[in-house]
Amino acid sequence: MNTQHKEDNEFPLIYVQVLNLLLMGAMTAVSWAIATPYFTKGVLVGGLLANVSFMFLKNDLTRILAGPMQIAKARFFIKYYARFSLLALILFFLVRYHLVHVVGLILGLSTVVLSIGITTIGLVKRFFFTAKEAS
How is the chain split into domains, by residue range? Predict the structure, then answer.
């Protein structure tokens, strides 16, 4: 009996969100142990910005896919570009006024990319192992 709530071919966004937070926490803890507080602040701030942005994007995408496309599509793009502009402005001020270490910030911002990559690799491995068993 299959106890999964979603179909096997769906991308598990909740898994990505949890992995985002775990990676951010692990990266912050490691940088706190081996780097300066200035660098660690960059990792933490970058991770928080990336995770918050991802959560808003996920909510907007699930909302747009659930409703009528034409009206929701225009609204989605307006919200997307407004959020992107705000994120760019925040990053500009963080870097311009040296509030965080730039490399730490980039490392923190990469948590979402890493978690999507890890999730995708897991799904590909599961797909190929399932395909091998079926043949």
Answer: 13-121
Instruction: Tell me the pLDDT tens digit for each residue of 51-68.
Output: 999 999 999 888 888 777
Cβ neighbours of 76 (radius 10 Å):
17
Q: How far is CA 16 from the centre of its chain?
A: 7
Query: In residues, how long is the chain?
Result: 135
The runs of H, that is alpha helices, within the chain are: 13-34, 37-66, 69-96, 102-109, 111-134
Model pTM? Answer: 0.85
The whole-number pLDDT of residue 134 equals 65
Whether 103 contacts 43, CB under 8 Å? no
CA neighbours closer than 13 Å in the CB half-sphere of residue 44: 14
Which of 3-7, 116-120, 128-132 has the lowest average pLDDT?
A: 3-7
Share of the chain above pLDDT 70, in %: 90
The one-letter amino acid at 96: R
Tell me the C-alpha distance between 134 and 129, whole Å. 9
Q: Which residues, 6 or more positions from 67, have their beta carbon under 8 angstroms from its beta carbon?
A: none
